[in-house]
Design brief:
Order of helices and strands: HEHHHEHEEEEEEEHHH
Largest sheet: 6 strands, mixed
Number of helices: 8
Structural class: alpha+beta
CATH topology of the largest domain: Coagulation Factor XIII, Chain A, domain 1
CATH superfamily of the largest domain: chitin-binding protein cbp21
Mean pLDDT: 79
Shape: globular
Distance between the termini: 19 Å
Number of domains: 2
Strand content: 15-25%
Low-confidence stretches: 1-29, 212-219, 245-254, 256-280
Length: about 290
């Protein structure tokens, strides 16, 4: 076979193969609330392989350790501000993602942070900073933590709003809000909507007003602790989170099984395009050879 033919055939084959995605794209995501500590951060701090609290043990038994190693990934890539449209009641903490379904459990033994009414210093660990707006809500008086969290459970008035810059201080966003008077266990809910992309991030943090976890719910709840930098570094190799593409090119994550639409396979289209490209290349090669023979 002439070398020119081999080079042309190889180029056609590689070009056609490039049209077919062989592996799924990894998700892109970038942070978690460390004060008050979010559910996923609290369980990751305990250690994915050796969780201490019963709820974190149950999370690993249900969903495996990967959700904890991906503690900074609770996102929806195409939310575009339509949070109540893309996330149904009862799925707020998981952002309606099957991977994080355990975060929606309505339990009173989630590790919690003791808080009081008044000024509060929020702290968010970011592994990639994004321009946007971070809005923090809290549940209304009388909230029942034994029931799944609904949008109507959140007080319409945010306890904090923060315009996030593209740079962070030592890997953290720090901002101040004001917590209203409450008693017992409540949930602090964060929505972080990027302005440079339709992507948004979400989290639930369990808090207790009055100094204890509502008498520790009969001493079953533990105090939430944020992951140390050593813990973050130790688990980095186990994470599937990618920080590539900060311009809105993230791929939509899988939604909960009961709400996830069945997407058509891209393979037939890719194969058709690859075949057309190969046919075009072969035709061009044949024409060239005929001209050379003439």
């Amino acid at each position: 076979m002439p070398s020119s033919y081999r080079r042309t055939a190889t180029a056609v084959t590689l070009s056609a193969a490039a049209l077919i995605p062989l592996t799924p794209s990894s998700a892109s995501a970038h942070g978690a609330v460390f004060n008050p500590v979010s559910r996923v951060a609290a369980c990751y701090a305990e250690g994915p392989e050796t969780p201490k609290s019963q709820v974190c043990k149950d999370l690993v038994a249900d969903s495996g350790t990967q959700p904890l190693y991906d503690w900074n990934e609770v996102n929806i890539a195409n939310a575009n501000g339509q949070h109540q449209v893309v996330i149904p009641d009862g799925k707020l903490c998981s952002a309606n993602r099957e991977k994080y379904r355990a975060l929606d459990w309505a339990r009173t033994d989630w590790p919690s942070t003791a808080v009081a009414a008044g000024s509060f210093d929020f702290k968010v660990r970011v592994t990639a900073a994004h321009q946007g707006t971070m809005t923090v809500y809290i549940t209304k008086p009388g909230f029942d933590p034994t029931q799944p969290l609904k949008w109507s459970d959140l007080d319409a008035t945010p306890v904090a709003t923060y315009a996030t810059p593209r740079a962070s201080t030592d890997g953290y966003y720090h901002f101040t809000g004001s917590l209203p008077a409450r008693t017992g266990r409540h949930v602090v809910y964060k929505v972080w909507q990027r302005s440079d992309s339709p992507e948004a991030f979400y989290s639930c943090s369990d808090v207790t007003f009055g100094g204890t976890a509502k008498a520790a719910s009969a001493s079953t709840a533990s105090t939430a602790a944020a992951p140390s930098e050593a813990r973050i570094a130790a688990g980095a190799d186990r994470s599937t989170v990618s920080h590539a593409g900060h311009g809105g090119d993230e791929h939509a994550p899988a939604l909960s099984s009961e709400a996830a639409p069945t997407a058509p396979s891209p393979l037939p289209l890719a194969l058709g395009a690859a075949g057309a490209l190969a046919a075009f290349g072969a035709g061009s090669l044949l024409l060239t050879r005929r001209r050379n023979a003439s």
